[in-house]
Design brief:
472 residues, alpha/beta
Length: 472
């Protein structure tokens, strides 16, 4: 039997974090070249055409016969040349551990009370940017409350909140430029808020009226805007990830000074598209930032049932992607990590993975009751003690950039804008039935023409079953 072993050289290793990572207040990305031993099967030698001198054979006899002479020493200079680099042979059988004793630490800048942690290194934020970050988080929080209530009143069909994840939304958006392209999952409307998407545009989409850019053909919260470089939300999980890598590769080919940012939840990492995207990005060295919102739950599935690895951050390292774990409820830490990741992605032309640790305080959507599968006191604990909006407010207050009067004004203004937007959205008529069959083909094929004809006939025969405000 023959054993081949390969060890990759690099600057970082999981079990070296104590010496390499420093304090938790430092931004450290896991190197994509980690010293991880990788086993190869004996059949590998038969498939690689290399001189026999490149292989070290270790044979054992279990049957009677003349024993072979086995060398007591291993030539440490003997290596195997592979496309990705040279690997050394060893005589010791060594399996890679499935886990490490010490988990990858989580970078943060502000503690739970919004106080700056001593010796933290972070990207500086101006007063203007910090105040906009906070007011946008207030707007996002208020929008979730009002639109959720509108769904419960039957005024819209569906809604999904970002409660508890406002910092990931707004802080990541603030660290980007408007030329950076965003491929969201469905819990990132804060990126659009930051980029100037109006509350009226949000309301138009949720109410599926004629002013909706999707012409009423998408579920509520499936926003999209060419103007804001924000791809339209797709319900299917993780399909946006390989697409994001393709977009990033096109930016690279065109030598654009921009990157792509795409988002995913912890549950999405179980999809094949996640793994294909990471490998695709690593191999092509595409300037794309993967932001995983590890919020503890994929609908009713906890992360403990989702994976056995040390969260998501180590998956990036496995694929050769520089990675970092960040406190997703710390807006300053998220801003700093994304700001730094963007610089690396563009200047070094490489992908980056950010695992943002947070908690989904709200239900998964209006179709879910999360109290059926998780304790209410757990939800309340995160909502009260680790609220990212309150934490950031305390920090800007300590800097003298915010006050109680400004708080009241911001929340009242947000509520008035949203209520007015809803009233206006309800007044606008629905898109005509014909819009269901447009925008795909320049000349509609016969099957679509036939479908439209049958739909109109059905509406005419059963008009009482169809909304009267939809133009036929």
């Amino acid at each position: 039997m023959m054993s081949l072993w390969v060890r990759k050289s690099g600057d970082f290793m999981i079990n070296h974090f104590k010496s390499k990572m420093g304090s938790l207040g430092s931004i450290r990305f896991c190197s994509r070249k980690s010293p991880v031993p990788v086993p190869f099967p004996a059949s590998f030698a038969q498939n690689v055409r290399l001189p026999e001198a490149h292989f070290h054979f270790c044979s054992r006899r279990f049957e009677s016969g003349k024993p072979e002479t086995i060398s007591d020493e291993v030539d440490t200079n003997q290596v195997l040349d592979l496309p990705e680099g040279k690997v050394k042979f060893i005589s010791e059988m060594r399996f890679i551990s499935e886990s490490t004793k010490e988990r990858v630490p989580c970078y943060r800048v502000l503690d739970d009370n919004g106080k700056l942690i001593m010796s933290s290194n972070y990207a500086e934020v101006s007063q203007e940017v910090a105040v906009k970050m906070y007011t946008d988080m207030v707007m996002l929080q208020t929008m979730d409350t009002i639109f959720y209530e509108a769904q419960r009143q039957g005024r819209i069909s569906f809604y999904l909140t970002t409660v508890g994840e406002e910092a990931i939304n707004i802080a990541s958006a603030a660290a980007l430029t408007f030329d950076d392209i965003v491929l969201p999952q469905y819990r990132e409307p804060g990126v659009l808020i930051w980029r100037g998407f109006t509350v009226q545009e949000f309301a138009n989409q949720c109410f599926s009226n004629k002013a909706d850019y999707g012409k009423g053909r998408q579920m509520p919260i499936h926003y999209g805007s060419n103007k804001h470089n924000y791809f339209t939300v797709s319900s299917t999980i993780a399909t946006q990830l390989p697409q994001a890598v393709g977009v990033a590769y096109s930016l690279k080919m065109d030598r654009k000074d921009a990157c792509v940012v795409t988002y995913i939840g912890d549950g999405g990492t179980s999809e094949g598209d996640f793994h294909a995207a990471l490998n695709f990005a690593a191999v092509t060295e595409a300037p794309v930032i993967f932001i995983c919102r590890n919020n503890g739950w994929a609908i009713s599935t906890p992360t403990s049932d989702q994976f056995r690895s040390d969260g998501v951050v180590v998956k990036g390292q496995a694929y050769g992607i520089r990675s970092i774990r960040v406190d997703g409820n710390d807006a300053l830490a998220m801003y700093s990590a994304v700001h730094t990741a963007r610089e690396m992605a563009i200047s070094e032309q490489r992908p980056i993975l950010i695992e943002a640790i947070t908690y989904r305080v709200g239900h998964h959507s209006t179709s879910d009751d999360s109290t059926k599968y998780r304790p209410v006191n757990e939800i309340e604990s995160w909502k009260v003690e680790r609220d990212p909006v309150n934490r950031f407010r305390k920090w800007i207050e300590r800097n003298g950039w915010w006050s109680g009067e400004a708080e009241i004004e911001a929340r009242n203004s947000a509520r008035k804008q949203l209520l007015h937007a809803i009233q206006e959205a309800e007044k606008v008529e629905k898109p005509p039935v014909a819009d269901m069959f447009t925008d795909v083909y320049d000349c509609p094929p016969s099957n679509l023409v036939e479908q439209e004809k049958r739909l109109r006939e059905t509406i005419k025969r059963h008009s009482q079953d169809y909304p009267s405000d939809v133009p036929v």
